[in-house]
Amino acid sequence: MNRTVLIAVTSAALAVAAGQDEVVPTEPQWWKGNTHTHTLWSDGLSAPETVVDWYRAHDYDFLVLSDHNHMQTEERWFTVDDGRLQPEDVDELKSIFGDRAVETRDWNGQPQMRLQTLTELQLRFARPGEFLLIPGEEITCNYRRKTESGFHDHPIHVNAINLATTIPPRGGDSPADLMNAIVRDVNEHAATHQRSVLSHVNHPIENAALSVQDIASLTGDRFFEIHNGLRSCPSQAEGDDPSIEDWWDEANTIRCEEPARPLLYGIASDDAHRIDGEPEVQAGRAWIVVRSPSLDAASLIEAMRKGDYYASTGVDLEDIQVTREAYTVDVQEREGVKHRVKFFGLRQGETEVQILMEGARDPAVYTWRGDEVWVRAKVITDRPHLNPQHADEVERAWTQPFRRPAASTDGSEEPGSAMPVEGSDGD
Predict the structure, then answer these.
(1) To pair with 414 at 20 to 30 A between CA atoms, which of 14, 26, 80, 233?
(2) What are phi and psi of 62, to 5 degrees?
(3) Strand-strand pairing, 132-147 and 150-161
């Protein structure tokens, strides 16, 4: 991916430093980010400043701290020596960030450390046009299902991005009802606070919480995780089980039975619970890259709603273009790395998704034949993943499914159809 910083972005940082109004870049560029991240504020194993510092140092442009049913807003003290935070961890934080930046106390004979709030983290790490911290939450609910062997809890987790306040968990009459009720709560929050908010359903295959029919019923937003970095949430097929990509295609096939339904878009995240150490929960396994004219939450969300982003586990793209003539994917070449691009799609009158075209040509260009219901692309390389979720994993990337853009009444291409916009399905 071209990581060249635009002159306008540099000017923005200088203007802010000088106390002037921010200069907003006007030309779109690619921004790399992770929308699903945990810290000591919930079940994460790392202090929030350690987490944010790692992502910024590893060339991420934006980050969402999505702790379970919690935002990093109030004063909270964390017990030292509880298993997740040891005295040596506190000493390391002081050595990295300074003694004054790490507040500790003795509480009834028990040492404690105060967790950094989102505001403090933003003041320390955020830089206009360089690094953005977006407030978020993983709204975490359990659907209790009764079986012959007793009651079983199935986790329904939905990430909400760019919240103003925490959204409490709730109940529902079925997994699909609970999932869609959470999304409705997010949309109501957006309307109440008059801000751009996006939700995505997390790791739907985990613990058999949801079915592909449930995902197909998603209403009010269109995003779900097609790759989650936790080893307990494999994206690859195991045995005869379908992969999450199979679910993605099947869910969109079901939704196309109603032509007005928007296609579902895919998110990749690492769902990090610690920065290093135990490989089950490490950071840096998967992310999204969004094309937007500026690095702010509203612009990023607007671009994602258009599908102007891709999911990746290591592949960088130079460009994605969807016009009435063709669907084009331009992969950034890496010396010694080979790749293939596969275009998947559903044709009219058929019920099975097919590989419509594949090859190693760059850019890869799929020319519309005219009978496609929708088409998406996947890039597969021969380069091993540097931080694999499973054995033999190679680096991949996924673009979003699109219908062929409509022509205008005079037969010419509609303005802006290089990245067509579909219906919102109520979001």
Answers:
(1) 26
(2) -145, 155
(3) antiparallel
